[in-house]
Amino acid sequence: MHLLDTAETFRDISKREIKKVPALRGRTVINLFFEASTRTRTSFEIAAKRLSADAVNISVSTSSVSKGETLLDTARNLQAMSPDCIVIRHSSAGAPYHLARACSAAIVNAGDGAHEHPTQALLDALTIREHKGRLQGLKVAIIGDILHSRVARSNIYLLSKLGATVSVAGPGTLVPAEFAGLIEQGVRLERRIEDAVVDADVVMILRMQRERQTDAFFPSMREYAVHYGLHLNHLSLAAPDAIVMHPGPMNRGIEISSEVADGGRSLILDQVTNGVAVRMAVLYLLAGTPSDVDEDRGSSPTVREGSTDSSRAAGGVRGRTRKTKRGTRN
């Protein structure tokens, strides 16, 4: 909750004429992305620059990885350049944890395989709280490819911990029966989109993760669109003030219709806006000094300058300090 509160203070910076504060001046943030990304990578870069940090983007196609270098060797070489934070997206689950054990820089998980995507769940929670005023007691429906979705896992963990009730729906091959038993707080499984959407306060749609699917999980995309695509008639079953969310990228006409995506209930672009604020908060709490972070609890952190000492970990990410090599995880 402290991270979400911190993100709210940073959200105002995007509305200023000069969108920059000196909070992380002199710090270095490396974006190491092994998978394609638009929103996440760009928002991390913008977040770092708005905090006055030096942002470095590394593309795998132009890095030594394409020449056969291992992930661990790449990380060690980056660590030798003394970055304060490394943001990584990788196709293998556990890659950020692997780096966190080998590097003293703070490691931020920007998505690892079909495992988790912590900052996406955090920005979703911030968006829901902004428009609903609370998270406790809300009913959230998550619809789509649950089996391969890291966004679904992170949202289920986070939202259920914060008091929301989560229902998931999708084809039986993509929402296995044992999935509910794997979630700490429990989750309700539905086979029909209509059952999941009934009285829902939040409807979250996920795209089909075709790049991670190795088998035929459904007959065709057309059939999936007919049975599990979100249309206006489905929203009539939800709460009168229900909101619609999508982590992107969208496949219009498949998992969501254009009428819904562009409608008044859609908060898809609000999620993108809040993504910058949340990632600013994550970088600030990780790369800012412990004294800065402690003093800023309950106050605005946007005018404080960072120093050059150790980094700190915050909820949903794993971090290390230069001096203590200590990590935390939510």
Write a brief caption for the model:
With 330 residues, the chain is of the alpha/beta class. The protein contains 12 helices and 9 strands. Helix 1 crosses helix 11, helix 2 crosses helix 11 and helix 5 crosses helix 6.
Summarize the topology.
Layout: H1 2-11, E1 28-33, H2 39-50, E2 54-59, H3 71-79, E3 85-90, H4 95-102, E4 106-112, H5 118-132, E5 139-143, H6 150-161, E6 165-169, E7 188-190, H7 193-197, E8 202-205, H8 221-228, H9 232-235, E9 243-245, H10 258-261, H11 268-287, H12 290-295
Parallel strand pairs: 1-2, 1-3, 3-4, 5-6, 5-8, 6-7, 8-9
Helix pairs in contact: 1-11, 2-11, 3-4, 5-6, 5-11
Mean of pLDDT: 84
Main beta-sheet annotation: 5 strands, parallel
Indicate the percent of residues in helices. Answer: 25-40%
Structural class: alpha/beta
Can you characterise this structure?
The chain has 330 residues and is of the alpha/beta class. The protein contains twelve helices and nine strands. The chain has helices spanning 2-11, 39-50, 71-79, 95-102, 118-132, 150-161, 193-197, 221-228, 232-235, 258-261, 268-287, 290-295, and strands at 28-33, 54-59, 85-90, 106-112, 139-143, 165-169, 188-190, 202-205, 243-245. The chain has a five-stranded parallel sheet. Strands 2-1-3-4 form a four-stranded parallel sheet, sandwiched between helices. Strand 5 (139-143), helix 6 (150-161) and strand 6 form a beta-alpha-beta unit. Helix 1 packs across helix 11 (268-287), helix 5 packs across helix 6 (150-161) and helix 5 packs across helix 11 (268-287). It is globular. The relative contact order is 0.17. Mean pLDDT is 84; it is low at 293-300 and 302-330.
